[in-house]
Amino acid sequence: MTSGPVVRLTDAALGFGDRTLWSHLTLGVDPGEFIAILGPNGAGKTSLLRVLLGQAALSDGTVEVGGGVGYIPQQRSLDRSVPLRGRDLVGLGYDGARWGVGWRGRRERRVAVETALGQVGATAFADAPVGTLSGGEQQRLRVAQALAADPKVLLCDEPLLSLDPGNQQLAVSLIERRRREFDTAVLFVSHEINPILPYCDRVLYLVDGRFRIGPTREVMTSEVLSRLYQAPVDVVTVRGRLVVVGGE
């Protein structure tokens, strides 16, 4: 695709064996758009990202992804024995999208890594062993790793998991800055709903084979979420921000 949406799903379905996670899903994601992918465990959120990464095939329908893709995985602390410096971890994000050797290639890689480290404010600890860094510092490096190849689409799979509220806000702000400054589309899977609501353009909610797509304030209502979850869910406004109470 050379124009229009950078991600396009058309009448898409995904299932494993006799189980269908979702079907008849049509979604176009424009450059610079922030899509939150929400729902309970087992609804197919991470599986959707795997489809976009080319790691899983649709059961039906079509998928198109234009431009490079960056991926931020779930936050998990790295062991102290991992023999990598911070810049080495970031460099893996560049190597995954480019091939070839030679002086020019090494120079381009170095520039890309330094640029990504600077974008997330991780230059100061780039030479430290990753296993000695805090969870927040490690997650900065994971964001930099996803940015090293200058992606047009950023896929985020529970990047706030196990982070304290301060580091959750930091991770979201780094991703939002990338979206705003480079017009990068963001698809963000999370159970931590409240930190990302202020930045979302649209929400895709997946629950038990059902889904709802729409602007945040249309989907994130007590009526809609209660119907999707088939259980009482309250959505309230606190100081101008939506807060979800109940559900998962």
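That was protein one. Protein two is written in the same sequence-then-structure order:
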Amino acid sequence: MKDQSMRGKSAIVGMATAGIGEAPGFSAMELLGQAAVAAVADAGLKMQDIDAVFAATSSHAFPTMSVVEYLGLKPRYFDGTNVGGSSFELHLLQATMALEAGLCDVALVCYGSNQRTAGGALVSMSEPQWHETPYKPRHPITAYALATSRHMAQYGTTRENLADVALAARGWANLNPEAFARGPLTKDEVLSARMISDPLSKSDCCLVTDGAAACVLVRADRAKDLAAKPVYFLGAGAANYHRSIVAMPDLTTTAAVDSGARALEMAGVSRKELDLVMLYDAFTINTILFLEDLGFCPKGEGGRFVADGRIAPGGELAVNTNGGGLSCVHPGMYGLFLIAEAVAQIRGQAGARQIDGCDLALCHGNGGTLSSQCTAILGSEATL
């Protein structure tokens, strides 16, 4: 029996981003605050209406406490679950459950980072691991390079396939005035880019930017009475089987196999019905792995699937229409920006990159080193 008890029970009624790219002079919390205030205003609500907070950051050990203090909130419910960049897709499910249970009435999901202007370089994401430390990995890049190498060896995936992912992301970014990396990019430029961790070059790696995002959720029966067009929560699923990359059961298959199936089942929709697919592209291999694991193509066929502009503007499948973490924004934890783009597309607010008739979107978040996988399905009123 399918559990669809949460389907359509909540809606995103406020959404905003702030400081995308470079925001010199602002702390991570100040950027988060800007996004939160704008999201609440977008919903036509006041900050004192917020009675639940969901937050995860890479800058605060106790994120909900810091958010509550900074914004002057007194929530009835709060949750600081941090499973990396996928936290926010999980927060949508948690917020929906809290709303449905009557534990809160207006939930804020938020994130902020000044990673680029505060220092820039990515640092190790892993606690010391006795089985990894002797090899001196540079995580997360080392871990993703390992998975990429295995996919290449097992399925014949090529650097040209990876380049197709980067080029598609740039093509979408060039339609997005907020994207940090814009301008022409050729396959030769991607393939000749400086190697960072073989076989991943600079062009295969996500951006290092500042940025913040926030969304506001209410119960569905209240959503139509608020200022902005509601975007409904239809389903979500999560799966997590390892922390360290060396403990990953199969380097070519992620837990998205299970999180995606659970989300689609809860939403009661098929892949063919999806208008938009937002994937956490911290590295080019992510897009290929997730397209396979979420069922858009058979395992091992991801590299060939993305060829010939299939996921680029004008292609068969709209993927990462904001430009993704590769060309739009990646401030350490990217998952909430997937949601922001899905909301913009479903509302019809995406400008030059707008997809015709976008009613149904999949957002897939990834945390750690291909560790936590969380998938959420969002839809317009027409999908209820």
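Residues 121-126 have pLDDT under 50 and may be disordered. Keep this in mind for the problem set.
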